[in-house]
Amino acid sequence: MIPLSVGEIAAVVGGTVVGGTVSSDGTVTVTAPAVLDSRQAEPGGLFVAFTGEQADGHDYAREAGRAGAVAVLGSRPTPLPTVVVPDARAALRALATHVVARLRDGLTVVGLTGSQGKTGTKDLLAALLSSVAPTIATIGSLNNELGVPLTMLRADAATRFLVLEMGARHIGDIAALTGLVAPDIAVVLNAGKAHLGEFGSREAIATTKGELVRGLAPGGTAVLNADDPRVVAMRSLTEGPVLTFGRADHADVRMLGLALDPLGRPSFTLRTAGTSVPVALPLVGAHQALNASAAAAAGLAVGIPLDLATAALATVSLSKWRMELRDLTGGATLLNDTYNANPDSTRAALDALAAIQGGRRIAVLGEMLELGDVSAAEHRAVGEYASSRADLVVAVGEAARPIADGAGERAVALADNDAAVEWLRGHLAADDVVLVKASRGARLDEVAAALA
């Protein structure tokens, strides 16, 4: 974060400095990133306090101070110097917009969205860009109305690339995020079924993802998935340059010759009009090849040659709980993909499971949230698909029971995470490969952790 006195912050957000040991002229300066969790505060940092239904962040200001925070942005005074505003969320957004605006001349902003693959592609793109210049990117999947401004506030005078993963649950969500900062590059991966229950239709999802393209800065470049008709159609939303990626013959960055090694890691070729470069990823899953082609296309959009991009991609790692492969005591292998799930990403994970060489393939699957009226049907369809990719399908929790129904004779239905851990400990054998995947709310990361 660029250094800002509390007085400057107050002027930007329309607040008043009160409390603590600071005078109203703002003699305390914030030099470290803003945080919402007092335990994550850094020396010189800003703690942003919200009043929620379950907890009041202002009550944790003293703890944030002990961790190093020097000021608070909130709606009432705290023991630390506090910029008091009527709406801390609105103030956070205003502050983020101000900071990035001050840095804008030397900064390229990349926005990225899609129904699935956002965080993995963001990780790939961040590795690619950081190989050539200082880069700030979304941590994990902090991609909402709070996560995006927090990421923006991590930028400083040295930052040359700012990568913002942008998620949505309603039409207008991404437009609100591009209202904070108009991206120079807009990457749209797909318009799938994630949050279908919230949006109501794939068309509404595509409309929302298209808000990223509509929000481009003047002259900005759209980077679009050539294999998704709903995404390709977004080229009509911009008068600026468009680059496409994917398997399609007409893709500007075309992915060819996909092959998987015994651990399910992809190798392939990326081809443009003038260049063809081999790529080998240290990641599990064929779907990572498409994510890599998206990252490479975005790299081309900012002037990074394909050979330099692919060299960076060969060393990338992903955020936690995303296709993490590890050996277990006893000789089995765990594929931990528990951060989140929707029907499309679950099928991709099942494909990855099927590609890994070993003994039995066991898919431990939990609920996929926010599917609305089609939830039971989508869970059942995933179960049917799982039965074609795994030897055993373990459905965890009552909401996941339709998965077991779809998987038929190959299925085991278990009541909860504890039952899943007990069953797996009693049934896993050497050389088994076990995938664990569900939406974050199902907390199947607890199952993966117990096994590991």
What do you see in this structure?
This protein is α/β, with parallel strands linked by helices and 452 residues long. Helix content is 34%, strand content 21%. The protein contains 16 helices and 22 strands. The strands form four sheets. The protein has a nine-stranded mixed sheet with strand order 9-10-8-11-12-13-14-15-16, sandwiched between helices. It has a six-stranded mixed sheet with strand order 17-18-22-19-20-21, sandwiched between helices. It has a five-stranded mixed sheet with strand order 2-7-6-5-4, sandwiched between helices. Helix 4 packs across helix 10 and helix 4 packs across helix 11. The chain is globular. 55% of the residues are buried.
List the helices and strands and how they pair.
Elements: E1 4-5, H1 6-13, E2 16-18, E3 29-30, E4 34-35, E5 46-48, H2 61-67, E6 71-74, E7 82-84, H3 88-103, E8 108-113, H4 118-130, E9 135-137, H5 147-152, E10 161-165, H6 173-180, E11 185-188, H7 196-199, H8 202-214, E12 221-225, H9 229-232, E13 242-246, E14 253-260, E15 266-271, E16 276-280, H10 287-301, H11 306-313, E17 324-327, E18 333-336, H12 343-355, E19 361-365, H13 375-389, E20 392-396, H14 401-407, E21 411-414, H15 417-427, E22 433-437, H16 445-451
Parallel strand pairs: 4-5, 5-6, 6-7, 8-10, 8-11, 9-10, 11-12, 12-13, 13-14, 18-22, 19-20, 19-22, 20-21
Antiparallel strand pairs: 1-3, 2-7, 14-15, 15-16, 17-18
Helix pairs in contact: 4-10, 4-11, 6-8, 10-11, 12-13, 13-14, 15-16
